[in-house]
Structure prediction request, 847 residues.
Amino acid sequence: MNSILKIVAQRLALGIFTLFVISLVIFLGVEALPGDLAEAVLGRSALPETVAAFRRELRLDLPMHIRYIEWLTAFVQGDLGNSLANGREISELIGVRLANTLFLALFAASIAVPVAVGLGILAALYRETWFDKSISMVTLSTISVPEFFIGYIMIAFLAVQTNIFPSISNITWEMPFFDRLYASALPAITLTFVVMAHMMRMTRAAIVNLLMSPYIEMATLKGLPRWRVILMHAFPNALSPIINVIIINLAFLVVGVVVVEVVFVYPGLGQLLVDSVSSRDLPVVQASCLIFAATYVLLNLTADILSIVTNPRMLHPK
Amino acid sequence: MSTKNELEYLLKSGKVSRRDFIGRAAALGVSATMASTLFAGSASAAPKKGGRLRLGIAGGSTTESIDTATLPGFMAQQLSFGQLRNCLVEIDANGKPVPELAESWSSSADAKSWTFKLRKGVEFHNGKTMTAEDVIHSINHHRGKDSKSAAKSLVAAIDELKADDKYTVTFNLKEGSADFPFVASDYHLGIVPVGTTGKDMEKGMGTGGYILESHEPGVRAFTKRNPNYWKEGRAHFDEIETIGIEDSTARTNALKTGQIDFMNRAESKTFHLLGRLAGIEAIKTTGTKHYTIPMHSDQAPYNNVDARLALKYAIDREAVVKTILRGHGLVGNDHPIAPSNQYFNTDLPVREYDPEKAKFHMKKAGLSDHKFRLHTSDAAFGGAVDTAVLYKEHAAKAGINIEVVQEPKDGYWDNVWMKKEWTFSFWSGRPTEDWMFTIGYAEGGAWNESFFSHERFNMLMKAGRAELDDTKRRAIYYEMQEICSNEGGSVIPMYASDLAGASSKLGHDKIAANWEGDGMKIAERWWFK
Prediction:
């Protein structure tokens, strides 16, 4: 167990370094974009003197490295700062949206993961049959079309034609839990279609791969039923690659859903990031990007730990 | 002109009656409902109180602010100006200034000094009584050296601002301005309690018909009816939910499925279908919004009036309105004054597409072989790139060579507009001739995008500004439009309509065209039937 703790500590330290590098890259990236916040907010009504006043007030007239160091010092002390565009506290601005994003990601994952893994196992069990082929075809088709298209199809059939679900996810945290689930059903279903194929194919491939192994042959020769061979003997050993794929898809559900957010008007973090980039609101861009980066770092760490824990050979290295 | 456009044009300029209009529209196959929405102002029952209005609005952003100095997009503007705050003056549905927080106003004979009598007994949402000090604070919020207000240029004309007594405010202007009451109606100039700045602005305190409950920038805002509202017969809803929906398909679907009661910026491609849906009213208003193609008229080759004229003759406006706007607009006449403006020049014939004349003037300018580089981007307005390509085709028939240069959307207003020699631009327009000309065409103006400098034009502008006599002003503005159209540095091919959709459960009177969304006053003027 000690070795795991050591790995975790090592990886976390590396993660923090990664975040630092990312913050620097983001800062330079936003600086490299044409225009700054003053020009973006005032738009065409900008006059040279109002732009200058804006910059003075927000300290945008200071040299770049001083602004970065100021931001970093505050950030290290746990102060995310205020949005430059409307002066609101970033923690307050991001808090609700992060919760919304995580809510949608968990909702989608709780449908997608069991269904994908289940279908993957079934596909391995009945491989090369019409069942296997049709499942592959359907999931691969849904991953091949852009997600907004799936979203629009969902809206056309489930909202406009039949009025089963609302077409926009107008959710608040004051709503009861089930109302919130109902309101975000369509984006969750859409995301399920988007991420399912990857997980399902990996589950199938990992299991099929193991079916060639001698110990599976042994189990079959013992006369065990097929489902038992797959579920009890092959599946536990196939877990490591499956977990990795699931985790990558979870990360996608947190950071990559801005298109779905736009289609369903879901108030998540993605839209905030896009808006902040276009108005050059650097502290908000930094905060959202670091949250996204941290999500990746932490989820990857989780994937590695889970792979080690589920694999005795890695748990007790010689 | 032989299409619906012509009809609309005639209607707007008052050349056909309503009966005539409906009849001729029917002959063109325009449905009666459409025709009557074009002819805004159908009969309506007495407003009823109550209900929860849900507005699905494009033009919000998660970085928006409701500081009156900022108000970057329609969602913030509509919230601050349409729900929470009032101005001294309001523009009514006919485009006329009417008293709002000011009970009455008067000016000196030279229109240089304006005195506003404030309404007594008006309370802010926090119970404070509105007086002159609040008005002075609210206007000064945009003035001064450290102002970062988008309205700074608007209040630059004010030399001095003082309270004569608790309910009288006098504005002394640097020069006469007969239209000053219009300026006082601008959405930036909402009245807030004295001392409100910075973060306090986001609390949305004002004297308006609704009180802010919560505002999540770009996502949604909740407001509740102000039980203490001073205005009679206004603000009928119990509560209002403003939802930011940027995607036009999402907005349309939300309206169709009854999740919202009103949407702005309907898609022009599907607007005719929207009107056919049961329970939905398709609303079209044509105000002062227009698209321009300004050139650096102080530089060769654009400093040649014949070259400019040739370029104006070389665009088929009819075709552009039909393809780019899908007919939801009017042809422009190379000046920025719209048919809905007070002194719109009805005597000036619309410039027709005429390759022969274009060729003639280009030859006269000696520029027949010149290659004109036209810089475009959809950042200027949706369809600007397509317009440029169409224009190139039209001009080619006159032997004029236009090269279309597509520019990136990002940073278009900073790096391309007014920097490159010939670009695209859009204007939401202004309620008065003087305001529009001063802001966009006066020599040395910050947004004189065509670098126009015309001695007589500038002289007339000054004269018109301080002129209080209606007939004389009309003559002045007619001439200015003519100068602008024939000698100006902008090709102005079209006025674009505002398209919107509303649940037919909503009732309204004649819809104002000064801003989209019934002059941004839906929350105050509309009701549930």
Observations:
- Chain B touches chain A through 47 residues (CB under 8 Å).
- Residues 506 and 528 of chain B are 5 Å apart (CA to CA).
- The first helix of chain B runs from residue 4 to 12.
- DSSP finds 19 helices and 21 strands in chain B.
